Amino acid sequence: TIMGFVKVEKIPALNVTCTSTFSETLQCYIPVLVGILFGMSTIHYQWYFNALIECHNFNNCDDFCESWPGNICDFSDSKRKGFRISVQEYFDVKHEDDIELSNLFSACKVHFDCSRARVSRNHSVPI
Predict the structure, then answer these.
(1) Model pLDDT for residues 72-91, shown as the tens digit of each residue
(2) Is 54 left (phi over 0), alpha (psi -120 to 50) or beta?
(3) What is the CA radius of gyration of the chain?
(4) Spatial CB neighbours of 46, under 8 Å, sequence gap ≥ 6
(5) More exposed terminus of the chain, fewer Cβ within 10 Å: N or C?
(6) What is the rounded CA–CA span in Å between residue 127 and residue 77?
(7) Measured in Å, how far apart are the chain's first and last C-alpha atoms?
(8) Do the beta carbons of residue 31 and residue 18 sit within 8 Å?
(9) Do the beta carbons of residue 55 and residue 86 sit within 8 Å?
(10) Are strands 2-3 and 15-23 parallel, antiparallel or unpaired?
(11) Three-state SS across the chain?
């Protein structure tokens, strides 16, 4: 998610969300979906992930779990929950425990290290 790329005073949570993947042919990362989101809630990210999953034409949930290259995001609960809900609803998975998403959605190490460094500067929080 790119904050501040598009600025509209009346919509402070407006952001650009981009998903990219590595192209073996081009030997570089290329964008596969770019969305302008008018908020950062779970439902906003759910809609984004709905579009992303739909672009891939998976046959079923098993096909998705075997073929999905993975998704790396920051530590946003809204993104994580939006992804989970999108997968559950898209593939009609009734219970959260019926699908294991830990291999399909993970947090970015760079974001983790930056957050850890920021927290470590706060001397009242032990690391």
Answers:
(1) 777 678 888 998 899 999 99
(2) alpha
(3) 16
(4) 81, 82, 83, 85, 86, 89
(5) C
(6) 22
(7) 27
(8) yes
(9) no
(10) antiparallel
(11) CEECCCCCCCCCCCEEEEEEEEECCCCEEEEEEEEEECCCCHHHHHHHHHHHHHHCCCCCHHHHHHHCCCEEECCCHHHHHHHHHHHHHHCCCCCHHHCCCCCCEEECHHHHHHHHHHHHCCCCCCC
84 half-sphere exposure, CB direction, 13 A CA radius:
18
Task: List pLDDT tens digits, range 3-57.
Answer: 666 677 777 788 888 888 888 999 998 988 999 998 889 999 999 999 999 988 8
Polymer length of the chain: 127
